[in-house]
Amino acid sequence: MQRTVHPLRGEQEGRTALDSTLSKPTAMKPKLPRKPAEWLAEITRAWGEARDSIPETEESRHPLTEETLYQLAPLLALRARGRPEEGEEATRVTEVALANVLENADPEDPDAPLAGDAPLAFALGYLATHLALGLIDEDQAEVVLDYCDEHLPDE
Questions:
Q1: Residue 122: closest CA among 86, 74, 85, 89
Q2: Cα distance between the two ends of the chain
Q3: Dist. CA 15–CA 72, nearest whole Å
Q4: Is 114 helix (H, G, I), strand (E, B) or coil?
């Protein structure tokens, strides 16, 4: 499967996350995962948290679906690292992450490498956020994404 993660590519995207439906960061942040299995566990927890927010958005103007949960990946990644959720850095990394997801998992493009795989699209957004923050490099992101591709359940 051909997919790319671009650390400096981004387009202006609006944030659609409903902050009130997601847990707030805790005082103590977990260490950055080192092994792909650790990343998978963290991404799986974040995916579950994102999925739990779906019912809270049903009556909003832009309700979330599993296919659009990738939009929450940057916010949850920032929270996991204890980084500010607003401001210049948050905007920059969110734009980069969402551009990566849209390039690789655009639901309107059936030829997109990750089209139709919502959990893996979320994982890509989560990892692209860490890449844009400079916490991992492209090789690490690719290894973890491949591991997620093998181990994330297709939902």
A1: 74
A2: 19
A3: 8
A4: coil
| CB distance 105 to 70 below 8 Å | yes
Q: Which helix (H) or strand (E) holds 11?
A: none
Give, in degrees to the nearest 5, the angle at Cα 52 between 25 and 28: 15
Q: pTM for the full model? A: 0.80
Residue by residue, pLDDT tens for the chain (155 residues) are 445 554 444 333 344 444 444 555 545 566 899 999 999 999 999 999 999 988 888 878 888 888 889 999 999 999 999 999 999 999 999 999 999 998 888 767 777 788 788 999 999 999 999 999 999 999 999 999 999 999 997 65
Integer Cα distance of 81 and 123 in angstroms: 15
